[in-house]
Amino acid sequence: MSGNVKVVSRFRPPNSLELKEGGDIVVDFDDSEGTTVKLRNGPTSGPEAAGFTFDRVFPMGTHQQDVFEYGIKETVDDVLNGYNGTIFAYGQTGSGKTFTMMGSDIDSEDLKGIIPRITEQIFTNIAISPPHLEYLVKVSYMEIYMERIRDLLAPQNDNLQIHEEKSRGVYIKGLSDYYVSDQSEVYEIMRQGGLARAVSSTNMNAESSRSHSIFLVTIQQRNTETGSQKSGNLYLVDLAGSEKVGKTGASGQTLEEAKKINKSLSALGMVINALTDGKSSHIPYRDSKLTRILQESLGGNSRTTLIINCSPCYYNQDETISTLRFGVRAKSIKNKARVNAELSPAELKALLKKAQADAARQQAYITALETEVKRWRSGAQVAESEWADLSKVVVGASAGESGTIAPASASRPPSTRPITPAIEALRESRPETPSSGSMDKDERDEFLRRENELADQVTERENALKETRAKLQEAEDELAFLREREAELSETNKTYAKDSEELKLAHDRLIYEHKETTISVDILKEQIQDLHTEIEDLRRSANEPGRSATGVGQSADPAQADRDRKKAELVGQMMEGYTAGAFTALEQQVRESLSKLDLVAGDKGNLSSEDIAKIKGLFDDSQSVARENTERAQQAEEQNKLLAQSRDELEDRFAKLEAEYDELLDKTMQNDETNATGYNDAAQEVRLKLEAQYASKREAHLGEIADLKRQLELRANEKAKLQNNHEVLRSAYDELKRALAVTSAAADGGKNLAEEAREMERVRRSMTTQLAEFDNMRKNLMRDLQNRCEKVVELELALDTTREHSNNLIRNSNVKSQAKKMAHLEHNLNNLVRVQKSLVDQNTQLKKDINASTKKLMNRQDRIAQLEQQFAEAQADLKRANERFDDQVANLKQAMSHRQAKPAGAQTGAALGFGRIAKPIRGGGPIGQPGPQPGPGAAAQGLRHPGIASAQAQSIDSSSPKARSSWFFSATK
Ligand SMILES: Nc1ncnc2c1ncn2[C@@H]1O[C@H](COP(=O)(O)OP(=O)(O)OP(=O)(O)O)[C@@H](O)[C@H]1O
């Protein structure tokens, strides 16, 4: 039965992109029959002026169910009746092919596409078919991605080859197929396969199919009464969309995909052109995998429906026109569909019997011919009526019997080939590649056989090449990874080595700095020591007066001894005048005068005028001595006054000092309060020391003042005593003067010698007494003088010391500059203390840093060692991995050779248990009920079979493009 390809067109609603671009609709569907679509701004003349006419046109908003009902449903009946069927969707990317074929929600009655509806319909039809009809339904799912056929139910098989055999027609070798007994199993397989499909996001479609997908349903029908069989293959093809890469924005892998897609679609166009132009003798099916697979569907043994999907919008007008033209061309393709039937045993037996009879007849005919030939050769004449004739051959009852020779009445030459209509019918019932040229059948068979062999070899080589490439890639990746790792490690090592070097340098530098710091600290310590010594000296110098005031008599130190010595010298100098001076000489003269007087008293009149002059001189001397004494007493009094003055001055200065010190102390206290934390213990200590110094100095000064007071009293006493002595001396002088006057008078007058002698005696006695008294007085006076001189010297020394002390005090405590110096010193001391502290801190910190750095260094060294160890381990691991890899390669090779030894079917069967057992479904019975020899409930089990799950897992892993996320790819549904 021949017929044209059926073409229906479907327009989807405008999408968001088109609406963004204006959303102008450029198509009209105004014919009543629903078979024509017109372009609003289309040509007004020519074949397209009336629009594009198809078997059916589905405008925007057509329901999935309507598309199925009015465009597809009858194909299901065809396939169940043993025809091959093909439904494929063609259109630009994003035009709704997948939406039409699969739908957007398998669980939604409205949204599920035609494939779910077809499979549902298949099971519905089976269910209502007569009970003596038994069906086997199996499905396969594949895609053509980048010109490689990939089994979507076993995605690891991604380079399947197309074979063609006389008996089977075109088929995919090694494609897994699954027996299904109800709709849910089909859905499950759709989901599993869909997960492995290649989709990508483009500007035109968020989930653009990057491959042509082919869902193959094979239905075998057996008449249990007659044993006859029919089988039909239904190809449900969702083509990848043609795309303008400028619009889709394809680049990289998507661009490569687009190139392949467009290439195979143009091959499809070429096939359609060749089929429809009426002049091509060669149809280029072999130009692409797609056209090769669809070979039977396009101009062959198939009832084919093409769904062309279009956009209604101006934005895609060019693509829409091109699609509509494609549809129009395809519509004129003529197919020769026939039932793929197999005869029942009875029919076959009859046929055999008939064939045997024919053979016997032929044999009888041959025998008759041979007999006739012999007669002719022997020169005999054979009458025409006796000529051998097939129609006259009479065959015996049994098949093997030779038939009798009928008279030859062959009006036409006998055919060289036996004609067996039944066998011919059988042959014709199988799908067959349309003859491609002048090859006769044997040649074509041989060609196909050879082609298949070569295809297998190509596949093997390609697979081997692929494996090798994969291994090579793996090895290269691993090598790259290892190199990278090694580079990283060596980089890390370098970094560590550099770090380590830096750390070492830092360590050395720290040690060096530490040493330097230690040296600086030592220097500072020395400076501090010096400062301490200076402070100590200052303190000592501040304490000196106090010690000198309180330490008289404790002259253990050299200063005190020096002072004592000085004092002794001064006293010696002072006393010198008195011991060797006037008093001694005067005393001598007085004694001489007295002895002379004694002589005068004894000789009575022996006293000469010279003696008298001498005595007179002696009196004069006594008078001058008395004067000197008076002067000295006056001088002592003046000195006393001066001492009192200096004492007062000292007291004043002391008072001032005290006041200034108090002020300074107050300020210091205030500073202490405001800078409670600023001044440290050292300042406090200095202050305390200064206070102590001040207290001790004050004490010393008070003691000195008391001492000076005492000395002044003593001086006053001495002055009184000196005045007394002066008085005594004056009276002695007066006495001597009077005696001299008497003596002078006696010498001058010579009168009354007795009286004069008495008077002389009296004078002499009085003078002796006075001399004794004077002697005593002199002794006392000398003692007193000695004491006074000592006191004066002591006072002078004390005054000097006090002055010095006072000066020191002024220098140390009172003077502003001294205060500044003190403050400066204190500041320096504080600074030094701070510096020392910070140095100590730094030193400590440095030590810590060194420790930390050393630890870090050690850590890093440990780390380096660890890393080196890891590196060594990694290298060992790498070595082991290499060995393992080699082992694996060897194992794989072995496994491959084993596998190659096994039949191909066994492989798939071993990998996937689900659906490998045929599940005959009877007509008239409940859907899914097993037939007479059902599999052990494998169908239901198969849905949850780990094989599928593993296939699913593999598909996710192995598919390079991303998997579709629509409903039928969701494993939860
Ligand atoms: N008739 C329709 N009604 C509603 N939405 C539709 C229709 N046709 C398509 N769509 C929506 O348009 C978008 C693109 O559709 P789809 O993926 O089926 O296009 P496609 O032709 O298969 O594209 P590609 O060739 O890129 O795979 C989807 O979101 C789909 O749901």
From TrEMBL:
<feature type="domain" description="Kinesin motor">
    <location>
        <begin position="4"/>
        <end position="333"/>
    </location>
</feature>
<keyword id="KW-0547">Nucleotide-binding</keyword>
<dbReference type="GO" id="GO:0005874">
    <property type="term" value="C:microtubule"/>
</dbReference>
<keyword id="KW-0175">Coiled coil</keyword>
<keyword id="KW-0505">Motor protein</keyword>
<dbReference type="GO" id="GO:0003777">
    <property type="term" value="F:microtubule motor activity"/>
</dbReference>
<feature type="region of interest" description="Disordered">
    <location>
        <begin position="917"/>
        <end position="973"/>
    </location>
</feature>
<feature type="binding site">
    <location>
        <begin position="91"/>
        <end position="98"/>
    </location>
    <ligand>
        <name>ATP</name>
    </ligand>
</feature>
<keyword id="KW-0206">Cytoskeleton</keyword>
<feature type="coiled-coil region">
    <location>
        <begin position="705"/>
        <end position="739"/>
    </location>
</feature>
<dbReference type="InterPro" id="IPR059182">
    <property type="entry name" value="Khc_C"/>
</dbReference>
<dbReference type="GO" id="GO:0008017">
    <property type="term" value="F:microtubule binding"/>
</dbReference>
<keyword id="KW-0493">Microtubule</keyword>
<feature type="coiled-coil region">
    <location>
        <begin position="850"/>
        <end position="895"/>
    </location>
</feature>
<keyword id="KW-0067">ATP-binding</keyword>
<dbReference type="InterPro" id="IPR036961">
    <property type="entry name" value="Kinesin_motor_dom_sf"/>
</dbReference>
<dbReference type="GO" id="GO:0007018">
    <property type="term" value="P:microtubule-based movement"/>
</dbReference>
<dbReference type="InterPro" id="IPR027640">
    <property type="entry name" value="Kinesin-like_fam"/>
</dbReference>
<feature type="region of interest" description="Disordered">
    <location>
        <begin position="541"/>
        <end position="564"/>
    </location>
</feature>
<feature type="coiled-coil region">
    <location>
        <begin position="626"/>
        <end position="667"/>
    </location>
</feature>
<protein>
    <submittedName>
        <fullName>Putative kinesin-1 motor protein</fullName>
    </submittedName>
</protein>
<dbReference type="GO" id="GO:0005524">
    <property type="term" value="F:ATP binding"/>
</dbReference>
<feature type="region of interest" description="Disordered">
    <location>
        <begin position="424"/>
        <end position="445"/>
    </location>
</feature>
<dbReference type="Pfam" id="PF00225">
    <property type="entry name" value="Kinesin"/>
</dbReference>
<comment type="similarity">
    <text>Belongs to the TRAFAC class myosin-kinesin ATPase superfamily. Kinesin family.</text>
</comment>
<feature type="compositionally biased region" description="Polar residues">
    <location>
        <begin position="961"/>
        <end position="973"/>
    </location>
</feature>
<dbReference type="InterPro" id="IPR027417">
    <property type="entry name" value="P-loop_NTPase"/>
</dbReference>
<feature type="compositionally biased region" description="Low complexity">
    <location>
        <begin position="936"/>
        <end position="960"/>
    </location>
</feature>
<keyword id="KW-0963">Cytoplasm</keyword>
<feature type="coiled-coil region">
    <location>
        <begin position="448"/>
        <end position="492"/>
    </location>
</feature>
<dbReference type="InterPro" id="IPR001752">
    <property type="entry name" value="Kinesin_motor_dom"/>
</dbReference>
